[in-house]
Design brief:
mainly alpha, 9 helices
Amino acid sequence: MTSQSEAPHISGRATAAVGALALAMVAAGCTPPALLAVNEGSDASMHGRYEEALQDYDHAIALDPMLSTAHCARGEVLSKMKRYKDATLSFRQCISLNPRDLEGKASLAIALLLDCDYAGAQVALDDFDRSKSTHPRVLANAEWVRVRLKRAAALGGRCLPESEVEAL
């Protein structure tokens, strides 16, 4: 049995097929248990119940370790909990499962920046930039990282205080 970190690579075509099957099941009124757990986690997160959301996302991942959406959602809630190192791991897993997940790439750059890993944030931002996204929200997230990386460089690479991160 392979561990989560040793999960075999699935081709983009297979990932797309799995995603299409999941959407067809949902449209037919048959939601896979892992997607139900992700939906429950999203609801809990939206209402500020982050510990509960984290449990739901962990449950979804236990049911389907290859569900990149669950890993990305887990990273988002971990970021809200200010657990940036853990969030980074979740975003990396999300991207390894779905290299086309541009929101995951932008979120990885944000988590690395908030963890004061400016070199890692720049690498993640460069990876994101190579994707040439045109999605406005994802582009706004990348620009958010760019501005803060410039500010950190101007301050000699020191960790930006939370008040400065939010104020910029």
